[in-house]
Design brief:
The structure is a single chain. With 427 residues, this protein is of the alpha+beta class. The chain has 15 helices and seven strands. The protein has helices at residues 2-30, 39-62, 68-87, 89-98, 108-118, 121-142, 147-170, 180-209, 221-243, 250-272, 282-296, 311-318, 320-337, 361-375, 402-418, and strands at residues 301-308, 343-348, 351-357, 379-380, 384-385, 388-394, 424-426. Strands 2-3-1-6-7 form a five-stranded mixed beta sheet, sandwiched between helices. Strands 4-5 form a two-stranded antiparallel sheet. The longest helix is centred in the middle third of the chain and has 30 residues, at 180-209. It is globular.
Length: 427
């Protein structure tokens, strides 16, 4: 009887322990930020994840046994991925700290895309699973991972790998003997990879963030250039893996140099860019404006100083996050309305500033009026609209220092506020 009692106690303890474990996991799952997304974003993310998992299941369920050489190539690529990830762990964590919630080149794509060109589809998918499983463990180790975002990204890569691998094989692609036709096929699959990346990721970002325009979620040219460069490096890795597999790790040296170069670029960007608006910060703006003003000489240059009206009331009524969204929307409006070579920056608080080379005073006033109208269409939580008072100053052929232009525009801006706000005034 005592034995039965102890056995019953053990069973009861196991049952309660299992129940607590399941409840714990369930509570953690329910706390995911994923469930706070609106229905459209949530539905899209779950559909993409289901398609990614389904692709793996279908391919692995119907695949024939790969050759031993393919298994060796897969093992080498996976070992390269894990080795490089561990060796560059500190640099990558610092890079992610600098660029949180920003678009960044994905260095996993180097070896994932190499797998598309080298391996049968089943092993290419297993390679992706292995690479992302290791990335997940690293993220958990450093507590720098958002689970639902990571799973969505992995699902996107699985879909891209499946489609690109099938396409590459269907077109007769191969790297055993690389000729002109093979090169064209590789470039076509590379273009398909980038197109799928854009098509699958953009809707998720747009639906989750709900920015004022689709343009705000599209990757910048610099990020596209980084991604294309890493994919071209993956082509080199694939060719070396096929023809001289033990030299394949040499490609990681090139990747390390590229990795560090991108980090330097991002450090420079962080030092110059205002994090809330994406515009130049005041120091970087002044540096660019001084240079443009010096280049203009006695040519005509105008300056706009834009101050959002009653912005403190927006922060007090709707919170600072709503205020930040309004600042970003105004910045996006300025980028859309002004020219690519105009020096545009956040001057401080709710003030923005723009230097317009080769722009006369009447043209600057017209631009300011158009910008004021566009800003007035920005709303906070669909309840309160944002307005701006804009001061305009111009050199009018005189050689002025930057501070003279700013002071004249500042006086004009205060004149616009005194005149009832949501106005343009000339200094």
């Amino acid at each position: 009887m005592p034995t039965r009692g102890r056995l019953s106690a053990i069973i009861i303890s196991l049952v309660f322990g299992l129940r607590n474990f399941v409840a714990n996991r369930r509570n953690r799952l329910l706390k995911w930020r994923l469930w706070s997304l609106d229905r459209a974003a949530l539905g899209y993310i779950l559909i993409v994840e289901a398609v990614g998992v389904g692709a793996v299941g279908v391919v692995l369920g119907t695949a024939t046994a790969p050759r031993s050489a393919a298994w060796l190539q897969c093992a080498v690529l996976l070992a390269m991925s894990i080795g490089y990830a561990e060796a560059s762990d500190r640099v990558e964590r610092f890079r992610r700290f600098l660029c949180v919630d920003k678009s960044m080149p994905n260095y996993n794509s180097v070896l994932c895309f190499a797998g598309v060109l080298v391996l049968p589809t089943s092993l290419a998918l297993l390679l992706v699973v292995g690479i992302y499983a290791h990335s997940y463990l690293r993220g958990r180790r450093h507590q720098t991972i958002t689970s639902y975002r990571f799973l969505f990204t992995a699902a996107v890569i699985l879909i891209m790998t499946t489609v690109c691998s099938f396409s590459f094989l269907a077109m007769g692609g191969g790297l055993a003997k690389v000729g002109p036709v093979d090169a064209v096929i590789v470039l076509a699959v590379l273009a398909l990879h980038e197109a799928l990346n854009l098509v699958l990721l953009t809707p998720a970002v747009y639906l989750a963030a709900r920015p004022p325009s689709l343009h705000a979620v599209l990757p910048e040219r610099r990020d596209v250039a980084y991604e294309l460069a890493t994919l071209l490096l993956s082509v080199l890795t694939a060719v070396v893996t096929v023809h001289a597999i033990w030299f394949a790790p040499i490609s990681l040296v090139v990747l390390a140099v590229w990795h560090r170069a991108s980090l330097v670029t991002q450090l420079q960007r962080v030092a110059r860019i205002d994090s809330k608006t994406g515009l130049l910060n005041s120091g970087a703006w002044r540096e660019l404006a001084e240079r443009q003003l010096a280049q203009a000489g006695t040519g005509v240059v105008s300056l706009l100083l834009i101050d959002l009206d009653h912005f403190k009331k927006i922060n007090d009524a709707y919170g600072h996050l709503a205020g930040d969204r309004a600042l970003r929307a105004v910045a996006d409006a300025m980028i859309a309305e002004l020219r690519g070579y105009d020096a545009v920056g956040r001057y401080g608080g709710e003030e923005f500033i723009a230097l317009l080379p080769r722009t006369s005073r009447p043209d600057a006033v017209a631009i300011a009026q158009r910008l004021r109208t566009v800003i007035a269409e920005v709303s906070v939580l669909e309840q309160r609209r944002v307005t701006a008072s804009i001061g305009v100053s111009s050199t009018n052929g005189r050689k002025l220092v930057l501070n003279d232009l700013i002071e004249a525009a500042d006086r004009a801006m205060y004149s616009a506020k005194a005149d009832g706000r949501d106005k343009v005034a000339v200094g």
